[in-house]
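[Solved] Which block belongs to which protein?

Original post:
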Amino acid sequence: MKTSVTYKPRHFDLSGLKGISDKTLEMHFGLYEGYVRATNQLGERIDALIHERGIEKEEAPAYSELKRRLGFEYNGMLLHELYFENLMRAAPGGPEPGSVFARAVENSFGSQQRWRIDFTGVGSMRGVGWAICYLDPANQRLSNHWVALHHLGNVAGFRPILVMDVWEHAYLLDHAPSERGRYIDAFFANVDWRVVERRLQA
């Protein structure tokens, strides 16, 4: 019996963003589709080991490596979906004053400006990964974190509210490596704050 789920790439209509070109998006969607394919392939290989033969001592190292790789590919798929979901054409440029997100930011950081400085600082860190604003469900406070690659640094139990891809492929066609700050500004210019609000209230 097959226990792995088969995922299909989702379609995101994001052409015409400010500061993030359609060419960059096309490349980005192709990478995302690669994560979906790899997730499906790894799931099938793990299924075969478990259900067809069982995991014998000789196969345990291969099984372990497949499971580790699945975490990388699966998170790559999901983080890209969260990133694409929180972008939109003709975005409002910032959260509504008095919105649930604005209140949560003020409660957690004192002001939206301090939160954005911190989030931008995370996004400007050297390396490849993600800047993610999380909600701690235990106390309803927001915090910004760096996730290296796709899977190192995710905070257990926290809910991702705003996700920014800061791998170089996210901006190199539009900005030089030294211009990551311009990409971060472009990201903020395209955030769909309604999606952020829904995630916060889920």
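(Second protein starts here: sequence line, then its structure tokens.)
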Amino acid sequence: MAGPADDLPISPEELTAALASRDLASLVARLARERSWGALTALFRHAAGPRAPAALGVGELEVAARALALTLDAL
């Protein structure tokens, strides 16, 4: 099981790739299952920051947040 020391930050490029593949919710769910809290925080920080991909909209964030909630409920 990964711990905080094992967390890798999510780069803007990784976020862009997840959005391009329409896989942001899967990435969020995987990070939650792995308990990569730092990576999840970094992902949502990038999503809210000035370097967020132009394709990132409220709908994608809602789906990602719902995936996070469902995964946390399962844990």
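Accepted answer:
You had them paired correctly. Confirming on the second one: The chain has four helices and no strands.
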